[in-house]
């Protein structure tokens, strides 16, 4: 962003660049038939029973009330959608409730284009923060949220939604991390300019100021380590969604160990500042001689 360029103009340009790179058109959705298309798209992604994650009637009400409902299109075909609603303080915060991309459009930047469009939309309305939740065990989502978008987890929420009857979450607790996306933070602007370079745990593990708080054992099991260092590493499974199908018992062990280690550290004041390309959270630890901050800074 140049000195004379406003945060809004910069966000709009970054959103346009992301949509162009993904070869999609991202726009808000208000038409009833298109809102029904959002419901149908979510059902095709989550295969939830007995209903889609969010229905057309609720989408209609959210859109009419001025909340965020947007779709990503290839020609006239919707391939992704994102829905958010205002949260306290309602004039400054948006809660991004659900976002999804069809499998056939995955890994081409559609989700990234949706989030950058949402950021620009929010800044245009004077909204400075977007929050959402995500499963801390899904490595690709953690990398996307912390690195590609520059967000920061602020709270660990055990079994937040209770039991969910869909193809993705069935049979597992719905632990979530609450993520804060400070839209005007320089790190967020850098991430949205696609300037972030990945880091790897192998580059960090042997430093004197780094400890492995939760690692991976030889059989892929979680291994409790040490928290006696300024910087801590916490591993997650490379692909927990596949693991739920092949070894649900081991997936459950990972769930409870990550909840114990990451949850206690985050809720005790540690801050997750990165996620490595090979699947590790990087935390700044809190020690007795350090004060604990409050809020989402």
From TrEMBL:
Xref: InterPro entries: Acyl_CoA_acyltransferase, GNAT_dom, GNAT_N_AcTrfase_prd
GO molecular function, one term: acyltransferase activity, transferring groups other than amino-acyl groups
Protein name: N-acetyltransferase domain-containing protein
Limits of the N-acetyltransferase domain: 24-169
